[in-house]
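Entry for the shared binder. Reason: the reviewer on the internal report wants the predicted structure included alongside the sequence.
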Amino acid sequence: MTNFLPLVEKFHSLQGEGFHTGQSAFFIRLAGCSVGCSWCDTKHSWDKEKYPLIPIKKIIDEIKKARKKGASFLVITGGEPLHHNLDNLCQAINKETSEKDQNPIKIHIETSGVNKMSGNYDWITLSPKRHLPPKTYFLENFNELKIIINDKKDIDFAIDIKQEIMNKYQNLSSKDNFYKLDKKYYVQPAWENARGFSLTIDFVKNNPEWNLSLQTHKYLKIK
């Protein structure tokens, strides 16, 4: 566990993707990623040595300021945030953002699922990559699955990984299966990829159990 984390950036904006699109959120982007997607739009965050180690206390001070300004939840992203042990961070957030008339701020994380879990979250966005599949733990413990689509192989990956998830649940009780229906499934075209956009639209049109996610913050030209 650590009391310092390499921080790329922090900002208060709107969640632009997935289930919570359009909602006020505070983002912290942590440095470090070994997944290495060729189409990644945050390659600047990969090298954790380029960024200063920031005390958790200082990060939480920024979270508290953003909450007072209207951020309804925190999003921890990267890079790959779970390259770091986030137990101390999440414990401190839950303790320090709890006030007399408010519960702790809700914590969301976006992860590819390649590392073991650390920390506690109110919402887990699993964004797995076909060249480095997620650990089995994440196939059950996620709230939304988001697959980035560049080419036909990503469509095939989306179909396969959802089938793997369904296979894991087929022997669960009816109550458990009902809970699993609350999980959300998204495909999202890679930014400025016309082929990926076309594939994504066609796929969602013909597979109604999947939803379309767009990087709306980029279309709106906001942070």
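Summary line for the report: Strands lie at 4-14, 24-30, 53-55, 73-77, 106-111, 123-126, 144-149, 184-189, 211-212.
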